[in-house]
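Before relying on records like the one below, remember that each one covers exactly one chain. Contacts with other chains, cofactors or solvent are not represented anywhere in the record.
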Amino acid sequence: MIATTRGQLLRGQTTDALGDEVDTLEPVPGVASDFAVSLIENRSSVQDPETGTWRSVTYMQAQIKRRLDIQDGDRLKDLRTGIVYAIGDKSTVPRSLGGFSSTTLELRQTSA
């Protein structure tokens, strides 16, 4: 499933000195406060190493056409639903000889 929405990049402290989760994330000003994003829900079959049972795993990706300064610990907020995602790996995908590219982000939902 692919959903086109508006996104917001959040930055700030996600854990305190004791490692407890805290919520002091603030929107990154400028372009990162409201941009177009495609959320892509993918499914994959993986085998449980202990039981050998095959399981279906759902994971999320985001694709954006802007170059954003994404740092470790940043979060992506879906402005349509309010869901916040932790950003894992990111990769730049070249699209054409004209230099247009997009950035693909691996996501993990952190709030509903």
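The chain has no helices and seven strands.
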